[in-house]
Amino acid sequence: MATTTPELKRSRSAKSATRPGDRIFSGLSRGSGITLLVIMAAIAVFLSYRTVIAISKDSTNFFTTFEWNPAGDPPVFGIAVLAFGTVVSSIVAMVIAVPVAIGIALFISHYAPRRLAKPLAYVVDLLAAVPSIIYGLWGAIFLVPYLAGLNEWLDQYLGWTYVFDKANEGPARSLFTVGILLAIMILPIITNVTREVFLQVPKMHEEAALALGATRWEVIRMSVLPFGRSGIISASMLGLGRALGETMAVAVVLSPSFLISGHLLDPGGGTFAQNIAAKFNEANEYGRDALIASGLVLFAITLLVNGAARWIIGRRKEYSGAAA
Hints:
The protein is mostly helical and 324 residues long.
C-alpha cells in the first residue's frame, strides 16, 4: 500500500494538470507574457528605426550637442541638456520623496490610530489620482511664486555649495522647482506600495521584538525596515519611472533652455518628455524623427533603471522579506 500511494498521487496530479481549465489558463498566461515581450520589442524596433534615420542626417554628435534645431540647414540636435535635466530633476524628486514617503507609510501602518490611518491612507490614494496637468497648473500658479523666498534663503545660506548659488535672476522656473513638483507627484505611489509592504510584516516578528523589551522604533528598525527593503526599492523605482517620464507638469512649470548649469535655482533647463511635448506639434517629419530619437534614450534609461533595481534586489539576499 505504501508503494502505490506516491504513484496514485502522481497520477492524480498529472490528471489535474491536464484539465481543460488548467490548459486554457496556462495558455492565456503564457500568451499574455509573450504579448508583452512582443509589444516591448515592437516599441524598441520602431524607436530604433526612426532614430537611425534621424542620426544619419545629423552631422553633429547626438549625445554631446547642446542645441536643438532639426529644421535648420544643416539640421542640428542633441540630447545633452535633456539628459542632464531629466536626471537632475528626478534625483531631486527622489531625494525629497523617498524619505517622506517612508515616514508617511510608517505612520499610517504603525503609529496612527485606525480612525486616522484609514482617512489618511484614502487621502494619499486620492493624490495618486490627480491628473498631471492639474499638478502643473498648481505648480505654475502657486508653487513658482512661493518658492522665490526659499530660493533666496538657499542662495544666502547654502550658496557656497555652488549647487544652490543663484547666478541668474528670474522666476523659480528651474529644475529645483520641477524636482519639488515631481516629488509631490510620485509621493503617493511610493507611499502606497511601501505601506502595503509594511503591513505584510509578520506579526510574530514584531511581537517577539516587543517581548524582548524593544521600543516601537527598535521594532521598526529591526523587523519592519529589513522586511520591507525590497518593497521600498521597488516602490522607489516605480516613482522614479514616473519622474523620468513626466510630461505636462514639467512643461507647464519649466522655462526651457538648452544650457547646462550646475546652479539648480537658475531658471531654464529641459527634460526629454517636456521637449517632446513642447516641440512635437510644430516639428516637421525630420524633427519628429529627432524627437523619437530622444524618446529612445529615455526608453533606454527607464529600462536600465528598472533592470538595475531588479539586479540589486536579486543580488542582495538580505533584501528578501523571507530573510528578515
